[in-house]
Design a protein that fits this description.
The structure holds two protein chains of two kinds. Chain A is an alpha+beta fold. Chain A has seven helices and four strands. Chain B folds into four domains: about 90 residues, 3-Layer(aba) Sandwich (Glutaredoxin); about 210 residues, Rossmann fold, CATH 3.40.50; about 90 residues, Ubiquitin-like (UB roll), CATH 3.10.20; about 80 residues, NADH-ubiquinone oxidoreductase 51kDa subunit, iron-sulphur binding domain (de novo design (two linked rop proteins)), CATH 1.20.1440. The complex binds flavin mononucleotide, iron/sulfur cluster (SF4) and FE2/S2 (inorganic) cluster.
Chain lengths: ~150, ~525
């Protein structure tokens, strides 16, 4: 996934889409992240003023949610489920070995997920948001090489 | 023209349903055959996915699990006319695993095109809403109360009682909030309802709105479910166009609007008051009760909070009547439960049955034991806050009260199976680590206790003063149970204690090295 570079003008447009809604801070942060791939530093003050809350409030929300990030993501996002149903099918090993096998690939980022709702077809993962079932290190590495 | 069903459910797609659909379309085209592909939800027999069905003169014929490589041979075997093939499963309705179930909430899932309102209506959809529109608010609440329907999110609180509180609370605005956070590992029924029968959930929420006098609804869906989010968004647009949602529902004076909020990857935001905070755009910190959300909920207004399955079952309760629903189940656990079989299991998926079937029947008759073929060691019921039970407890009846008596809890109905290779000390440690990761931070026993708990179990695993550390761990569990505001900290001790109780050998015999 490619994201546009930071632009205050664009950010203000994105913020304006949701800043008027009731309880706007989280949804606006999500909007910014969807657009830029992360929440750039400069966005916090803009969101605070558009949503009429303090910067500390925005920062508080930004740091609470696991999804929200303050650094640009790598090109390919892999999430490997390491919750119980997937653990029972060897997910811990899959996650560990997958990390090792892509360690030199700076395009790929692997993070842990805690249940992707695919527990009957464990181990589960998601590749750029697309759900995968019965994954192995081999199947993940193969898919990454084809991206 | 032949209709072919290839599930669009994300679990089916996770094992290749899209490639199967593409391959069927392209080979039909090449062979000059007129095929229309419908992307239905999944019937829930996930071990058979991708499950392809063909509509023939003698009904729907199933094939599965199908991979794209096998499409050529399926065409060669004339599968479009129900021809024989190694993957042939016979008539879909006669697949024993499905036929033995008692589908109420999941009656349409996997059968209909999820985004076709006409399909929905011709399979009984909107009947409950039409009835409700002709009824007084109190009578709707009375019918839901009389049905005995209990919340499916975990606590099993009677839905009607909650609705009555909201109905009786005066407020210029009221809300219906649907909890679609489904954070429990081992659960996926909410997701499958949203992807497979989204109008049912909207209908249930609308009935709730009419019953308590709310005109606005919010569905809080976890971000891990992008397909469910898309499906619900589309369904809302279609229902508004059709008139079963929005202003003047089905030509009446009633109005009800639904919008979606997406979670931020936080487990504790499934706790109802943390969810309200999150919908309000804030940190997902649990609120103290009172006030109850039914009295001061979203933005301080009276709010019904129900799980997806609770709300999705309401249309059936309205159309079929309270008595028909109540006729199923045992004791105070009435109706059906949507069990979700996952983990190391040969035949995983959705098993909807009246409450009161045995754990062993679910695991053996439906699940067919472990996927690995090794012997069963443990089953965790009810998500990450649920107990680990050993194979010796397979006689327990699967209902709220019996499970509680057996030291477990039903939660959202997920069952996760583990084979003999599981290390229960590691599982106990994970429970503590997960609590540390997801704690909202409000109470010390949960925030700090969970980290201490994980450290203590690590010491046990390393063989350090096992008896002393076990005592310390049990003390910690007690403090967490007694001193936590919500079930995150309050129930994390459940998997830990049950592991200690039923699998002591995994803690006691670690001397020195790890196993
Ligand atoms: C830590 C925690 C997580 C929870 N997660 C969920 C969830 O993901 N979905 C859900 O419906 N209920 C969840 N609950 C239960 C809710 O607090 C609440 O009881 C439920 O949404 C009420 O709906 P119901 O009565 O229809 O079950 C959770 C509770 C706790 C303590
Ligand atoms: S028990 Fe844990 S999650 Fe629940 S309110 Fe306390 S700190 Fe928050
Ligand atoms: S536990 Fe891994 S997908 Fe549910």
């Amino acid at each position: 996934m490619q994201f546009p570079a930071w632009s205050q003008e664009r950010a203000l447009e994105v913020i304006a889409r949701t800043s008027g809604e009731p309880g706007p801070v989280l949804v606006t942060l999500q909007g910014i992240q969807e657009y830029f791939g992360y929440v750039p530093d400069g966005a916090v003050a803009l969101i605070a003023s558009a949503c009429n809350v303090s910067r500390a409030d925005v920062h508080g929300v930004l740091t609470f949610y696991h999804d929200l990030r303050t650094e640009l993501p790598r090109k390919v996002q892999i999430k490997i489920c390491v919750a119980e149903a997937c653990q029972s099918m060897g997910a811990r090993d899959v996650a560990e070995s997958a990390r090792k096998s892509v360690i030199d690939n700076l395009d790929v980022e692997i993070s842990n997920a805690y249940c992707l709702g695919n527990c009957a077809l464990a181990p589960a993962a998601s590749v750029d948001g697309k759900l995968r079932g019965r994954v192995s290190v081999k199947s993940l590495v193969k898919e990454i090489s084809q991206l | 023209m032949t209709i072919v069903y290839v599930p669009g459910d994300s679990a089916a797609r996770s094992v290749g349903a899209d490639q199967v659909a593409i391959e069927i379309a392209s080979q039909a085209n090449a062979r000059g055959l007129d095929v229309q592909i419908v992307r239905n939800g999944s019937r829930g027999a996930l071990f058979l996915e991708p499950l392809v069905e063909v509509l023939t003169s003698s009904g729907r014929i199933a094939f599965g699990p199908v991979s794209a490589d096998e499409i050529n041979s399926l065409f060669e075997a004339d599968f479009l006319n129900g021809g024989d093939h190694v993957l042939a499963l016979g008539k879909s309705d006669e697949i024993a695993w499905l036929a033995k179930q008692d589908r109420v909430t999941f009656a349409r899932v996997g059968i209909i095109d999820p985004l076709s309102i006409s399909d929905y209506e011709s399979h009984g959809g909107l009947t409950g809403l039409r009835k409700a529109l002709d009824m007084k608010s109190e009578d709707i609440v009375e019918q839901v109360t009389a049905s005995g329907l209990r919340g499916r999110g975990g606590a099993g609180f009677p839905a009607g009682v909650k609705w009555r509180t909201v109905l009786n609370t005066v407020g210029e605005k009221k809300y219906i909030c649907c909890n679609a956070d489904e954070g429990d590992s081992g659960t996926f029924a909410d997701r499958m309802v949203m992807e497979g029968d989204p109008f049912m959930l909207l209908e249930g929420m609308t009935i709730a709105g009419i019953a308590v006098g709310a005109t606005e609804g919010v569905i809080y869906i976890r971000s891990e479910y992008p397909d469910a989010i898309e499906m619900m968004k589309k369904a809302i647009v279609l229902a508004n166009e059709f008139g079963s949602l929005g202003e003047n529902i089905l030509g009446t004076e009633r109005s009800f609007h639904v919008r979606i909020r997406v979670g931020g990857g936080s487990y504790v935001c499934g706790e109802e008051t943390a969810m309200l905070e999150s919908i309000e755009g804030k940190r997902g910190v649990v609120r103290s009760k009172p006030p109850l959300p039914a009295i001061e909920g979203l933005f301080g207004k009276p709010t019904v909070i129900n799980n997806v399955l609770t709300l999705a079952t309401v249309p059936a309760v309205m159309s079929g009547g309270a008595d028909a629903y109540k006729a199923r189940g045992v004791g105070r656990s009435v109706g059906t439960q949507v069990f979700q079989l996952g983990g190391n299991i040969a035949r995983g998926g959705i098993v909807e049955l009246a409450f009161g079937t045995t754990l062993g029947s679910l695991i053996n008759d439906y699940g067919s034991g472990t996927f690995s073929g090794k012997s069963i060691r443990a089953v965790q019921i009810g998500g990450p806050l649920g107990a680990y039970l050993p194979a010796s407890s397979f006689d327990v009846s699967m209902d709220y009260e019996s499970l509680l008596a057996a030291g477990g809890m039903l939660g959202h109905g997920g069952l996760v199976l583990f084979d003999e290779s599981v290390d229960m000390a590691i599982q106990a440690k994970f429970a503590m680590e997960f609590c540390a990761l997801e704690s909202c931070g409000k109470c010390t026993p949960c925030r700090i206790g969970s980290t201490r708990g994980a450290e203590t179990i690590t010491k046990i695993i390393d063989g350090q003063d096992i008896d002393g550390n076990k005592r310390l761990l049990l003390d910690l569990c007690e403090v967490m149970t007694d001193g936590s505001l919500c079930a995150m900290g309050g129930l994390t001790p459940l998997p830990v204690r049950s592991a200690l109780l039923h699998f002591p050998e995994d803690f006691d015999s670690r001397i020195g090295a790890t196993k």
